[in-house]
Prior knowledge:
Elements: E1 8-10, H1 23-36, H2 38-54, H3 59-80, E2 97-103, E3 108-114, H4 118-121, E4 126-127, E5 139-143, E6 161-166, E7 171-183, E8 189-190, E9 196-202, E10 214-222
Parallel strand pairs: 3-4, 5-9
Antiparallel strand pairs: 1-8, 2-3, 2-6, 4-5, 6-7, 7-10, 9-10
Amino acid sequence: MTHIKFIPVTDLSKISCNASEPIRAEMKKIDKQQKQDPKSAIKFLKVMSALIALACIGSASYIHIKAYTAQYLLSQAWQQSSADNLEKPWPWFDSNPVAKIHFPTLGNEQIVLAGDSGQALAFGPGLSHLSVKPGEEGTLVISGHRDTHFSHLQYLNPTEEVVLESISGERHLYKINKISIVNVNKDDITQTDFERLLLVTCFPFDSDVADTPLRYVIEALPVAITEPTTLIAKQGHVPVKKYGKNMALTF
């Protein structure tokens, strides 16, 4: 590998662990938009009406329902988007779909949003604005919450495939090469001189602690340069102590 100056791509500490933080701000936007322009809010409110009734059950249920209901609206926006016309799932949303990520072995797919702000991550995985484009040399970073859209990352293992579909319809195939646990107090994600996809979420998955410094990082490489590595992903129940030692990012 040639020697290059590594440029920080993502500050891992900015990736929040739970999806509840932007909820109140987003609901205020909904109320304001409905008062100013009732017609533009109809599409969103039809889908979300059941969610409001269920909110009284508890904030945890509300967050999950909101997250997956939003994916339905994002899927509609995805179908209507093109490289020249990026549709928003609802008019006052501050992001838009930019990719779709598929996990074939899990039968799971998610719409990926532009940016990894707290608001974006409340509704779906987010692509860091400092990421390169699929197919280019460098690092793509997609983040998601461990308690909603990226909860399934714990069941992925090395050699499994990940498919990233761009808004223009191009499909890029990656194979998981490495799974690491990193500490936000010690490590950043840095740019590379080769193509790779990083999937990032908080760790451990089964914890209620919101300010954990640990991040679960899956590295996937284009199939042509993928190499076998050690299997450490969760299968059934694996004691957390198996991940006890923090591992620094390596390139």
